[in-house]
Amino acid sequence: MSLQALKRTVSKQARTVTPAIRSLATPSSSRSDFKQTLSDGPSLDDFIVDNVPERVVFGNTKVPRLPSYLKTNIPKGSSFASIKKDLRGLGLHTVCEEARCPNIGDCWGGKEGASEVEGKRAATATIMLMGDTCTRGCRFCSIKTSRAPPPLDPHEPENTAEAISRWGLGYIVLTSVDRDDLADGGARHFAETIRKIKQKAPQILVEALTGDFQGSLPMVSVVAKSGLDVYAHNIETAEALTRFVRDRRATFRQSLKVLEHAKAEGVRVTKTSIMLGVGENEEQVIDALGELRKVDVDVVTFGQYMRPTKRHMKVERYVEPAEFDRWKIIAEDMGFMYVASGPLVRSSYKAGEFYIENVLRGKGTEKRAKNLLDHKGTTSGLISSTS
For [4Fe-4S] cluster 1, which residues are the binding ones (predicted)? Predict the structure, then answer.
């Protein structure tokens, strides 16, 4: 067969081939099933109801809602701006910022409606020494943690004293992260800062809110003898809840020994703080107060625990202001020199306002003397409390 004849044969066969039909390899009834489901399902009328709710609730309704009395205003004011500017310039840290305290504007802002000088004198700031990274991980605290924080800044005591003397505050609180990585827990650094402040501004009242120095009482002595006015160490909660709230290295009994030793070293005022709303009951709190009185703690504060982030332990309940008032009465009746109790009270909240007039300037000791006379009916209490 010639080449031309072969081409004609192939072309004719191609024209007679039945064209292929595109289709699914396996026929599906999904479309018909979907149509049937729609027709059998609810109609538009089923979604339209007469009783439309006035309020739609979004989010997690199982978590207690933040009460109005725990909401605060945005920080502002000349005193607030001045303190913040100096902190940044000198590279200092505050627990007010690091722990996200709700009272930062109230404390740093000073006295509302007062002159600039009076406002600064009424303001309170809490400087956090030894960096912004802690070696412990308490379940309520938002401060950063690490086993090996950066080394101490040798210029921090001088810079802190310079900033505080410049502000013209009447009361300053020094606290610190826990530094279990240091041989002395940072006690000497703490004490040096207090001495520098007293040299530059002797009129300022200084409160030291310390850790437990891993139970090292000699290190407690180093801070207690540095010239401070108030030695504070927080037990945070009742003994039964301590292991669920605080780092495992912190114990209730160890904290009591720190406070007891500070008083034995001649500190005029010792102080602690208790958070409410973490699962405690009344009996546990009363027991804790009793143990504090046994070691002669002078001042106690009660405040509401507020969860800093979702990674931290949950708020068990929000305590009503009336209950805080009741705890104030109970603690005062047990013999505490001064009690600050309220939803927004923190261990250093409005420290100047609470203590300068009522405790450190003399009125607190007069009140305690009167309480001792009322309870004991003797004059020995007056002599011991005013000496």
Answer: 96, 101, 107, 348
Query: To 5 degrees, how large is the angle CA 144–CA 94–CA 178?
Result: 50
Question: Which residue carries 């041989």 as its tokens?
Answer: 183
Question: Annotation-wise, does 138 bind a ligand?
Answer: yes
- Please tell me whether 141 is known to bind a ligand: yes
Does residue 349 contact residue 340 with C-beta atoms inside 8 Å? yes
Which distant-in-sequence residues (6+ apart) come within 8 Å of 45 by Cβ? none
Six token digits for residue 227: 């010239």
Cβ atoms within 10 Å of 28's Cβ, excluding its own? 8
Is 101 annotated among the ligand-binding residues?
A: yes
Determine which of 12-21, 125-134, 173-182 has the lowest per-residue pLDDT on average.
12-21
Query: Within 13 A of 216's CA, how many CA atoms are on the CB side?
Result: 17
Which residues in 289-321 are b (16+ Cβ under 10 Å) and which e?
bebbeebebbbbbbbbbbbeeeeeeebeebbee
Output Rg (C-alpha) for the chain, integer angstroms: 33
Q: In angstroms, rounded to a whole number, what is the distance separating the alpha carbons of residues 381 and 373?
A: 6
42 vs 349: which has the higher pLDDT: 42
Between these two residues, 228 and 375, which has the higher pLDDT value?
228
pTM metric for this prediction: 0.70
CA distances from 355 to 138, 173, 265, 299, 340 (A): 28, 12, 21, 9, 10
23 is annotated as contributing to ligand binding: no
Q: Tell me whether residue 134 is annotated as binding.
A: yes
Mean residue pLDDT across the chain: 77
Domains of the chain: 72-362 (3.20.20.70)
Q: How many residues does the chain have?
A: 387
Q: How far, in Å, are 96, 130, 237, 245 from residue 140 at the CA level?
A: 15, 20, 11, 7
